[in-house]
Amino acid sequence: MADFVIVGAGECGARAAFALREKGFDGTITLIGSETHLPYERPPLSKEALVAGAGPKLVADAERYAAAGIAVLSGRTVLEIDRAGRRVRLGDGTALPYDKLLLATGARPRTLPGMACGGRIAALRSHDDATRIRAHLVEGSHVAILGGGFIGLELAASARKLGASVTLVEGLPRVLSRGVPAEIAAIVASRHAAEGVEVLCGAKVAGIEERPGEVRLTLEDGRVVSASLLVVGIGAVPNTELAEAAGLAVDNGIAVDGLLRTSDPDILAAGDCTSYPLPLYGDRRVRLESWRNAQEQGQLAAANMLGGGEAHCAVPWFWSDQYDMTLQIAGLADGAATTVRRDLGEGAFLLFHLDAEGRLIAASGIGKGNAVARDIRLAEMLIAARRHPDPAALAAPETKLKTLLAA
Amino acid sequence: MSDTWIEVCAADEIDEEDVIRFDHAGRTFAIYRSPEDTYHATDGLCTHEKIHLADGLVMDHIIECPKHNGRFDYKTGEAKGAPVCVDLRTYPVKVEGGTVFIGL
């Protein structure tokens, strides 16, 4: 009987474990995670879970793991992969043999040089981080957020809902400069301003100082922001140390091929920790930190641990919820030669990004609730099919995108 | 199984291979028209995170949640894989005189 081990008990690792059983694997499955909670979904941590103070939204409860025969080792760290002996060594000295190993080690928040989290400085990645941050988000408190990416902005929206005042500091000239078109970022920024968030763009931090009762940020232009908590949301770093120490190839993430295999064919990697080639974009190597990528790659890794030979060919897809707005993005827009706008009414709109040959390479949209979701999904299918849709049809709201897919 | 037939809308108010939202007596539903021109009804909210399915995409006999892409067969309510694992409740539907009714 084969032994499969999965290191990393997040969305990706948990989905892979269940997918192995769904695909008929009858050997042992051991899922190892360093957190004490069972695997849970991370997207709510900056949104509804933060506002409600809810417990973690589990991917599955303990009964489902038991029923599927998945052994979950929580609160355990893996110290080493012994590739020659095909086993992993845990922090408590246990050695677990494997026939196939999946690394789904995720990522961790990027920190400021020389400044660890703790005290009045926090980052948001885990449920425990969210709990700690939430304790500071009370009516009348003031939170400073460093970084105008998805995490920082979602956190700002949640903090406002809880009655805290917010100053968001972004070093670049605008928020969401990574992967989100300026037209959409401008709407997000103005909505935050309307909700009372002080958004400071192009603001470089000169110094951070913790004092009794406050944390103080000094900006290069001399402005001082005093807050009861500073949340640092400046990106994530892939957890590649285990792979590196085992001599596996690492290139901005654990480097895998289209089948999610590392440089050792018995070790696969999936989710936030990996970098992989994207066939739709000339096999350009990317690392995507997203819920859906974690899920899809977890399932694909399971298929390929069983020898499925299935290649990853997905369209990158992201979403963010802030206040009552949702923005969604499919594809990678850099490299776009033209952009076509389609208005959907009530302020919602879509942007279609086409390359120089007229191929649709990305679509992005923003609107209230799920106003743009269906069209972004259809755009994703057009992108996957490498279509060259007529720009006039894309711009015309009366032309259903579904008809372009059928064309 | 159904006690009452409730009027939903005119049959041509739903496009082929599409879905609309229908609210009745404090409950919310999704009403579908299939590519074969048959009509179907399910609970309106996805069993994963209570997102309304009427904003989702209908492809053939599958409805996909607009938020997390959970998929259901809207004819049977069957959940078609992660992240959804709980089936969707379905309701009988009839079309009479060009009007769609849901049986509640």
TrEMBL record, chain A:
Q: List UniProt keywords, sorted A-Z.
A: FAD, Flavoprotein, Oxidoreductase
InterPro entries from the entry?
FAD-oxidoreductase/Apoptosis, FAD/NAD-bd_sf, FAD/NAD-binding_dom, FAD/NAD-linked_Rdtase_dimer_sf, Reductase_C
- Residue intervals of the Reductase C-terminal domain: 317-405
In this chain the FAD/NAD(P)-binding domain maps to 3-298
Q: Does the keyword Transcription apply?
A: no
Signal peptide limits: none
Q: Which cofactor does it need?
A: FAD
Keyword Flavoprotein in record: yes
Q: Which domain of life is it from?
A: Bacteria
Q: What is this protein called?
A: Ferredoxin reductase
UniProtKB/TrEMBL annotation, chain B:
Keyword annotations of the record: 2Fe-2S, Dioxygenase, Iron, Iron-sulfur, Metal-binding, Oxidoreductase
Query: Which positions fall inside the Rieske domain?
Result: 6-102
Q: Which cofactor does it need?
A: [2Fe-2S] cluster
Q: Does the keyword Acetylation apply?
A: no
A GO molecular function term, named singly, is: 2 iron, 2 sulfur cluster binding
Q: Name the Pfam families for this protein.
A: Rieske
- TM segments? none
List, alphabetically, the PROSITE patterns matched: RIESKE
NCBIfam families xref list = MocE_fam_FeS (TIGR02377)
UniProt similarity note: Belongs to the bacterial ring-hydroxylating dioxygenase ferredoxin component family.
**Name of the protein:** 3-phenylpropionate/trans-cinnamate dioxygenase ferredoxin subunit
